[in-house]
Amino acid sequence: MKILVAVKRVVDHAVRVRVRPDGSGVETENVRMSMNPFDKNAVEAAVQLGEAGHADEIVVVSIGPRQSNDVILTALAMGAHRGILIEADGRVETLAVAKLLRAVVDEEKPDLVLLGKQAVDDDSNQVGQMLAGLLDWPQATFASEIKVVGGGLEVTREVDYGRATIGVALPAIVTADLRLNTPRNAALPMVMKARSKPLAVRPVAEFGIDVAPRLKVEKVSPPAERPGGRKLGSVDELAAAIKSELSELEAL
Amino acid sequence: MAVLVLAEHDLGKLSASTARIVAAAERLGPVHLLVAGQGVAEVAAEAARIAGVEKVLVADSPALAELTAEAVAKLLAELAEPYGHIVAASASTGRDAIPRLAAKLDVMPVTDVIAIHGPNRFDRPIYAGNAIETIASGEPKHLLTIRASAFRPAQSGNNAPISAVGPDVAAVAKFIAAHRTESELPELSTAQIVVAGGVSFGSAERFALVEDLARTLGAAVGATRAAVDAGYAPNDWQVGQTGKIIAPDLYIGIGISGALQHLAGIQGARKIVAINKDPEAPLMKIADIALVGDLFEVVPQLIAGLKR
């Protein structure tokens, strides 16, 4: 099968972001950027399907500024075959992202599209489901296991009550959860080789899709601070403190 | 215009989160509460008792038995026309179906709403809760998922009329198996008290100490991602950015250092208690009550102390 993987360049998940004092957003200047962690799981899943003989071509696509080339190169170093960057500056909302990805799907005709379940910057958790809706394909979100069975997939999903296994026919959309796999760190020779793999850069205007934001971000604020409290000296004090909390709860 | 709210239910019971999203949605307009599933007559009867519900709609069909995204999105799309808002809990079903529906209706949704400022102004967290976005939407229809834990539940005491809606939906994805975590403890996402453990417990057997303390307190159990990854706790106990977001009145974190992604899940807790060997752990610094100590000594003593 042919697999398309969508990846996003985001503020590295280990960075503690700061809200700009003017409330216009989060400081992203001089901050370490990397591939969205869930997207790494999606790339790894695609590469593993390739290694198991189920995928003959893996195309990776990203939408964002020119620097998003970095995350495409990371995916190519992990084992994807070629990349597409849809170059777009500024905020591109999830619905516009899904429409751009549909255009890529129409061109590339993959059997499977893999995405991370959410991006850790805007935490939207929308694009995979939207793309499935636009294409009218089945979706298997929050995947922690993917098996190729017959002509389709059996996907185990992480849900509120535990896990659920569903069967989907191809073509389908699968979004990756963290327990799907452990993404590899590409060895240096793979990183060098990635630079010679094809990477097409295409301006977003080429797609003729309206990407103007529909939601207005009025302001971005920091969350309420938790000042911290008291340190106790013994377990007995802790038991007493918890008991008094419990009686307060009963009063509520 | 009325608000269409998708009820959360499981195993023939209405989930506690439903009364919370009804309370939130009531600020947007009269609530029509949709109960979708198979054999959900009793759930619908429970739903009709939530205060503020104008009417209950029941979509009962074998195709809705597992509430697949395809079937739920199609059902909501068929019902969408007269509604100004379509609302679901930010939980497995809503997260799966609302964005799919949004694409079908060509509407930009707002997910994970934690505050409602007006019919089209909402707060939602970004960057694992390290920033809060205030959004104004100019969309003709508003599709929302709401974090139940951010809202107080609507009262009980109502007798809303119940009517059937005839869905023409198919499940598309084939349901193969449910792997349920069996537990007699309260449901994590809406529990009033949560006891959570980290990877420092060292084994699934020793993680049972967390469950012992939870049982003593009538609390739900939570876990860090590392503890789940290590196999000490099932995935649906994970609390954090990518797990469950909780807002209990009392949260007790044991042997949890407090990674950003875990803290994202507990920011709404009213009181935080932390027990850790390391006084410098981030969770210890934000805790309302902290005790420095070895969890294998502290927890059994604490259980004994609470039972006294």
Q: What's a concise summary of this model?
A:
The complex is a heterodimer of chains A (252) and B (308). Chain A has 252 residues and is α/β, with parallel strands linked by helices.
Give a structural overview.
The complex is a heterodimer of chains A (252) and B (308). By secondary structure, chain A is an alpha/beta fold. Helices cover 29% and strands 31% of the residues of chain A. Chain A has a 9-stranded mixed beta sheet, sandwiched between helices. A two-stranded antiparallel ribbon of chain A has the order 2-3. Chain A is globular, with a radius of gyration of 21 Å. Chain B folds into 2 domains: 3-164, HUPs (Rossmann fold); 188-307, TPP-binding domain (Rossmann fold). Chain B has a 7-stranded parallel beta sheet, sandwiched between helices. In chain B, strands 15-14-16-17-18 form a 5-stranded parallel beta sheet. Chain B starts with a strand and ends with a helix. Strand 9 (162-169) of chain A pairs antiparallel with strand 13 of chain B, so a sheet runs across the interface.
Keyword list:
heterodimer; A: 252 residues; alpha/beta; Rossmann fold; nine-stranded mixed sheet; 6 helices; 13 strands; 29% helix; B: 308 residues; seven-stranded parallel sheet; five-stranded parallel sheet; globular
